[in-house]
């Protein structure tokens, strides 16, 4: 029975500043580093030893994974990076203060942009400060100018199917250190969460979510390792 741990990155500088981050490569705060190390301690206590760690190309996820592995005393774990595990692209909201954006556009509109399943924010204008077209990490890729959770799932799921699922089906235990929305996309897929219910699923920063899977990669159990910081999980799929 393969085991999977999903680990959202620890608090980032822009989490602290309440800004829309998306693909901007901001680093962890001191609190975020502490959350990552605490996540590693919990992973060690659970007896989980990953055969591989998958992560995005963004430093807040990569550093969270590295700090967690170090804190868990796990050395030599192979690491695979891919941009398809990046956070959701927040389009024209990227870099904006969330409270100021709500004051300008209304809280209801911002809530739709942030939490709806298939309505993306306005697209990011080309040529600006946060235009990622020239970033060598995305060379040769068709990158989005905005994303909803649905279109985030549309890029995460093919990567899951081609790179992650085969390792799990081969019996490997896997750690994925990534982001709130790329991990919500995986949770939606694994737990078959309906479109209108995924908006209520929130993954805490730095709290490992351990999922036991059967041979068809259907969850048979799931728990947050830090119960004090746990959020409600979707129900397990019915057999």
TrEMBL record:
Family, as annotated: Belongs to the phosphoglycerate mutase family. BPG-dependent PGAM subfamily.
Pathway as given in its UniProt record: Carbohydrate degradation; glycolysis; pyruvate from D-glyceraldehyde 3-phosphate: step 3/5
Enzyme type, top EC level: isomerase
Reaction(s) the record says it catalyses: (2R)-2-phosphoglycerate = (2R)-3-phosphoglycerate
Any one Gene Ontology molecular-function term assigned to this protein's record: phosphoglycerate mutase activity
Pfam families assigned: His_Phos_1 (PF00300)
Residues under site feature: Transition state stabilizer: 179
Family annotation (CDD domains): HP_PGM_like
Subunit: Homodimer.
Active site: 9 (tele-phosphohistidine intermediate), 87 (proton donor/acceptor)
Record function comment: Catalyzes the interconversion of 2-phosphoglycerate and 3-phosphoglycerate.
SMART domains: PGAM
EC identifiers of the protein: 5.4.2.11
Protein name from the UniProt record: 2,3-bisphosphoglycerate-dependent phosphoglycerate mutase
Keyword terms of this UniProt record: Gluconeogenesis, Glycolysis, Isomerase
Record GO biological process: gluconeogenesis; glycolytic process
InterPro entries, sorted: His_Pase_superF_clade-1, His_PPase_superfam, PG/BPGM_mutase_AS, Phosphogly_mut1
Record: residues binding substrate: 8-15, 21-22, 60, 87-90, 98, 114-115, 180-181
